[in-house]
Amino acid sequence: MVPRTADRAQVAYFPRLAAQRLDIALCRASAAVARAADARANELGLGVGHHLVLKMLAEVGPCSQRVLSDELRIDRSVMVGLCDTLEQAGHVRRERDAEDRRAYAVTLTDPGREVLARAEGALPRFLDGTFQALDPEEREQLSFLLRKLLQIHP
What is the mean pLDDT of residues 17-37? Predict the structure, then answer.
């Protein structure tokens, strides 16, 4: 006899799948964190990609869209749109790169620094809420494992 639809809905298959397939579990966890990050960033009027661009510019200084794209692992065509939006909002400006006149250097502006400071200020609360199921030691372990998986060596 085939179970009715309502009975099948209570099977709770995903926990077994996630236990068997680490790739699926990681993808679902990543998607959940990304949705939460987007929602929080949008509350601040800044998308996650925009936040990352501003953060990198604040930390490393002016650089080309290509460098931003490569370092942040954001598709180049997406990076153009991010920089367009940030420039229209007055958070960055693009100027000819003094070393390579074919390229543009993206530079953080004072209003960009202000919006970045607000976003960074909200980050600890966001991270605490998003990762509340993990204690501090588990968060550090997750961070270590993700760096290892991504082959990032501090």
Answer: 89
Confidence label for 75 from pLDDT (cuts 50, 70 and 90)? very high
Judged against a pLDDT cut of 70, whether residue 6 lies above it is answered with: no
Q: What is the mean pLDDT of the chain?
A: 88
DSSP line for the chain: -PPPHHHHHTS-HHHHHHHH-HHHHHHHHHHHHHHHHHHHHHHTT--HHHHHHHHHHHHH-SEEHHHHHHHHT--HHHHHHHHHHHHHTTSEEEEE-SS-TTSEEEEE-HHHHHHHHHHHHHHHHHHHHHTTTS-HHHHHHHHHHHHHHTT---
